[in-house]
Amino acid sequence: MKKVLKIAGLALLGLLVIWTFVFLWQKSRPKKIVYNIEEAKVANIEKRTVATGKVQPRNEVLIKPQISGIISELYKEAGDRVNAGDIIAKIKVIPDMVNLSGAESRVSRAKLAAEQSQRTFVRDKELYEKNVISKEDYEKSQLQLSNDREELRSAQDNLSLVRDGITKSSASYSTTLARATVSGTILDIPVKVGNSVIQSNSFNDGTTIASVANLSDMLFVGKIDETEVGKLSEGMPMEITIGAIQDRKIPARLEYVSPKGVEESGAILFEMKAAMEMPSDIFIRAGYSANADIILDKRENVLSIPESSVEFSNDSAFVYTLKKEDPQEFDRKNIKIGLSDGINIEVLDGLKKNDKIRGSEKIDEKKK
Q: pLDDT band for position 173 (50/70/90)?
């Protein structure tokens, strides 16, 4: 029994040694690599870049009050369409007590003067009719009455303006009514009824009652890196993709590139603006985030190959052309290359249409 076990152990050891030698021999054999075969073909190549930004109206107008006071009524809300001259809000004037007291005092003095002039005129008229005073004195009395009445009317208008912000003569264009100065869509009304507002003047921008813009005239406003800004020119076509409308590309044309860059996160970026061709079947809101796909350069109907099949040595580019299919054999060949889109590259010289070249290494599905 012991002899049998000994023989079996030696046999097992011998098999293990033989398997080890076979394994090492197989491992030492050169690995056979099979490559995918690519073909030179005619295609269009476009070099593109992407700029990030947002959609903005070309002109956004801020509606400011012409008088300080409190919002008493709002007639519009964000999203409403308005025409130039439409009333957006009504402002109630809160009078300054010092100015109000002065205006009331002026009215009282003007009223006393007008009453005195009225009595004097009546008396002078009777005397003139009796030929007691000259016509010149009579006309002076009449002129004084007219001047005092005009002063009374002016004092009353001033009191009305200080107290109410409006006069009878200016009711049709009252400064207490905030009106749209342009036609368009109201983007925002940042005030509410009861809020205080300040008129615009030399020392204060004033309170914004509403912002109005024409949403049919929109711009893409974004930023592009300094390495690509030199390739831009006015009139270049681009496609705008809006984050909220992923399945639609909107044509646009470059209108403006800033002459000055700004540093952001260590990179120099330049502002750019492009006029969008607004579609009629979708509503695009101001402030949407968007990306601009810009065609920097383009080649049509040129010979191209996958860029991954090109290898470089110093300043030279070369590929491996297929010499034999089974087993695969290749010849190294220098080529002259042109424009690349990151996937395919233009071949200027060294290859012809339908030439076969070595591509990427083929993956053996069985070894996965």
A: very low
Mean pLDDT computed over 41-67: 90
Beta bridge partners of 223: 52, 271
Please list, in sequence order, all residues whose beta carbon lies within 8 angstroms of the beta carbon of residue 179, skipping any fewer than 6 positions away.
63, 84, 85, 86, 87, 88
Identify whether residues 74 and 193 lie together within a single domain. yes
CATH number of the domain within which 190 lies: 2.40.50.100
The CA-atom distances, in angstroms, between 308 and each of 122, 181, 280, 318 are 109, 59, 43, 11
Q: Report the pLDDT value the prediction gives residue 99, as an integer from 0 to 100.
A: 67
Query: Which structural domain range is residue 205 located in?
Result: 61-91+176-213
Distance between CA 364 and CA 342 in Å, rounded?
26
Mean per-residue pLDDT over the chain, rounded: 83
Q: How many Cα atoms occupy the beta-carbon half-sphere of 17 within 13 Å?
A: 6
Give the predicted TM-score (pTM) of the model.
0.62
Q: Where are the alpha helices (DSSP H) in 84-176?
A: 97-129, 135-164
